[in-house]
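pls read this protein.

:::
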Amino acid sequence: MLIVNVQDVGVDALKKLADSLREKKGVTYATAKMEIDPTPGAGQSYVEFFRAKDFSRYFQANPHLLEGHVAPLKPGRTIEDQVTDLMQMFSKRKFVRKAERKYKTPKPGRKRLVKFPRTLEKCEDSVWSDSAFYVWLYDRPTSIWTVVATVALPVVVIGACSFSLAPWWMRMTLVYSLMGLLTLLLGLLTLRYVLFTVVWIVTGHSFWLFPNLTADEVGIWDAFSPVISYEKPSSKKNHFLPRIVTMVAAAGLVYMLYTHSPDADKLKKNARKAHDQIFDYLDVYGKGKAFLPGNVTESARGNGTSNSTANSSRSSGHSSSESSGQGTGQRKAGGGESKEVPQRGAPLHPTDPDEEL
């Protein structure tokens, strides 16, 4: 931004008027590179500028804003004269400076100059001209929303990094709230295009629900205003053939979706699978907490309990098998006779009963 040492710029009525012109609903502006020094190799800075004709149109639509700043209207004096006086006051206070295009001819392949050039250079004279450009010479006032966003940004970043450490109910609330908001927006966009297509095929007119919803130049709240817009075509053409083609294509799409729709159980299964994958990716259930030192989760306790139970069952099963082996004999393999298995501690070769006699 090109900064000029502004003298005598106080918080007064004229400065407040200049600040109001730089708000979202003020004079239309654009950004361009400004030639600070005309010598070759000199540096450039990005500046905000506006067209003189847009400045004049703004005050012609809002003449009450000129009251108290310039001489009032009288016979022989028009709003254009008031705008000229106001611009001279802005130039005297060094709020703005007159500029002009660097390239005066259209680019190859174009028939006329662009509305807002990308490169400007200083203009030597300061006489008001309806076809000139004017550059703001001071920084845009900082709004309260800029301060709020600056403070909230690091908080949001830290919160996002600490998502897996948050309580379970907080993670679930945040995930389901965002999923619900995303579903609402996608459903609203789908409804907009469906309504527009149906109305256009039937009548040839344009009907939009929330027409500014996808506009880039409006704010969040202005995107939902107005609620509906209905326009009839300016020409007498009814676009009958394009509407018929669109109707056939839409009918074919609906038929294809109806005949090739997946099974309800399969769709439910896939939706559940996608739901679980999203939750695992976001670590909603806090599985990553188990890897923190000194942190024992309920799942870890459950795993320890189950492991202890399994070990106890394995030990008792081993003891039972030993007891049954000691209390019963082992059958002779391949024969019908059985032979006693010596008990633990008994001699391997017992003495013959005849020898004892």
